[in-house]
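Morning F.,

Quick status update on the modeling queue. The single chain you submitted on Monday has been processed. Sequence for confirmation:
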Amino acid sequence: MARVAKVKSSPSQRPGLCGKAETRSLQGGGPSCYRYRLADPALEASIQRHGMLMPVLVSDEVRPVVIAGHKRLHAARALKLKEIPVLIAARTKPQDALLLNLVSNWKEACPDMDRAQALGTTARELGFNEKELLLEVMPLLGLPDDKATLELYRKLDRFPRPLKDLIVDGRLPIRGVSFLMKFSEQDQAYFAKEIGSRMRLTSSQLLQAGEWLSDMLRGTGKSLGDFCRSSKVLEGLHVPGMDPRIKADKFFARLKRLRSPHYSKALAQFEEKSGSVFCGAKGIRLEPVQGFEEPGFELHARVRTPEELELLLQKIAEKRSSLNSLFEIML
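Structure tokens below.
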């Protein structure tokens, strides 16, 4: 009979030997599990097609505890597998078990939220100090051992669950949400529910919107929810069926008007006046400078022959007065 209950192997069961274990007998989770999300449809499909090619690392105990392979165990249970291959490790402290798990996945792709959870768990539940996090844990997570990066990921770990889910699902880029670290938990939860989950902001929109929101909330002293309700910045954007990108563009434009009403007024005047300068001319358009509150404007034209270039220069000469008047608006 195997010395580790529920694990089938040779009669001389010892750490380092492989065997099979009843899936239901294994203890998953615990401090050594740093995965933010265990479900992995691609892994389940692979195991269903090819079987479990790599054994799960378990402790040498009466009821084995999973040290590494928590996602594989989750997939096996989802597929209702009765037994899975295991590799038996000597009993070890929880701190060493987590490090062993990190080593077993070293140099593999590690999602940012897994990193955040690992750094949060090692400090919160396992008692790692800052020096140990920097020198031992972060290199195993593929992170530089600097305090700024450590602080970034520890703050991410403190985000509310809905916000983390949006990051994991790719709805919000991790670098773009850095402004939310300055928000209260209440404001973070509101942003996740009413903005992040309902629209698809680009990285640049998210960074700029975050800067504007931070400034306006600081100036008004309001919570994010109170600010959005009083300013009506989200009004009409929760219409069922509206494209999330269109919602994002409308939301961004409204924030821009609120943040800089004078510039928004100038943009409206520019659009109204510039539209008539080259009215009817194909391949020519006037636009504000790409950048917030930059002076001047951009002239875009497509020419394919010397004759078209000559025609363009004539049109510009004819419209010199109208073009000059646009500078009065965009200075």
